Amino acid sequence: MPKLFTYRKPFRLENGQTLPKLELAYNTLGQLNAEASNVIWICHALTANAHPEEWWPGIFDEKNGIDIDRYFVICVNTIGSCYGSTNPQSLHPETKEVYGLNFPKFSIRDISKSLDLLSAHLGIDQIQYLLGGSMGGMQAMEWAILKPEKIKNLILLATSAKHSSWGIALNETQRMAIEADSTFFENKKEAGKKGLEAARAIALVSYRNYRTYQNSQIDQDNTTDHFRASSYQKYQGEKLSRRFDAKAYWYLSKAMDSHNVARNRGGFENALSRIRAKTLVIGIQTDFLFPVEEQEFLDQHIANSVLEIIDSSYGHDGFLIEVEKIKSLLQKHFKL
Questions:
Q1: Is 219 annotated as a binding residue?
Q2: What pLDDT is recorded for position 223?
Q3: 3-164+258-334 topology per CATH
Q4: Could you tell me the residue ranges of all domains in the chain?
Q5: What CATH class is the domain 167-255?
Q6: For 51-84, what is each residue's pLDDT tens digit?
Q7: Which of 22, 63, 121, 139 is the 20 to 30 Å CA partner of 322?
Q8: How much is the pTM?
Q9: Does 220 have pLDDT greater than 80?
């Protein structure tokens, strides 16, 4: 079971709205040392939870990965997600009614600010390693800009300084699919279930690529129906709808679209120059959701940065699947 941090003061969001109370579900692995100097903080992606041992299991390895006998690992479920933190299915503390679509919109910067609140609550003044991929990389990057003195080493995987117009278009297409399910607008837990399944199928195409489907979803003699690729899309949609909430997905995709480190900071160069951490930027050659040019941009503008590109047949999802390659890079640059 995740632990729960409750911030009882109003939490002011970047857009000027507030959450009257903020709850963050988080999980830890290992033990914090006396100096609180062995912290590894992992920021999760869109539909993950506070348990990286579940969605990134191979990364924990005492031989060439993260050794939880040496480190204190923490991961926090983001604002808006349905795994224990304050989200659209939460009760408004004043009205005692479910927020639903009255939940305020929030940004990646708001998520990073909430992570910093929790770290202060836990007495953590320095983070030895901050890791994040995709939307998790957005959070990690923002936090390293917000509190540059706090982050010693930064690992950014398959992410960008600003969510692209291409990424926003894909997210909007998914939200259109969710909104096409008329139940989405009801204040019920199962609302938008079929729309979420369609949205996930759309997303999956952007997470993978031509080669992925050619390698795993080829048919022989089918004529008009029962294609493996069709079944796979339906399976993945249903799999997500069994564990995730449509409104949480809708809001989190909006938060992704908000990501822009240059906003109100005088441009990208000025914003990224604030990062003091030794930084490893990892791109995936076949990722067309966050193409390599976006990681090259980060490497060019973060002062103490190195760029590594890995090949993978899994496209964007390679940041979750190519664990052995990622662990090798962690050892190469940080000797974790």
A1: no
A2: 64
A3: Rossmann fold (3.40.50)
A4: 3-164+258-334, 167-255
A5: mainly alpha
A6: 999 999 899 988 888 999 999 999 999 999 999 9
A7: 139
A8: 0.96
A9: no
The pLDDT value recorded for residue 222 is 66
Query: pLDDT tens digits, residue range 13-65?
Result: 999 999 999 999 999 999 999 999 999 999 999 999 999 999 998 999 888 88
| Residues known to be catalytic | 134, 287, 316
Three-state helix/strand/coil letters over the chain: CCEEEEECCCEECCCCCEECCEEEEEEEECCCCCCCCCEEEEECCCCCCCCHHHHCHHHCCCCCCCCCCCCEEEEECCCCCCCCCCCCCCECCCCCCECHHHCCCCCHHHHHHHHHHHHHHCCCCCEEEEEEECHHHHHHHHHHHHCCCCEEEEEEECCCCECCHHHHHHHHHHHHHHHCCHHHHCCCCCCCHHHHHHHHHHHHHHHCCHHHHHHHCCCCCCCCCCCHHHHHHHHHHHHHHHHCCHHHHHHHHHHHHHCECCCCCCCHHHHHCCCCCEEEEEEECCCCCCCHHHHHHHHHHCCCEEEEEECCCCHHHHHHHCHHHHHHHHHHHHCC
Q: 317 a known binding residue?
A: yes
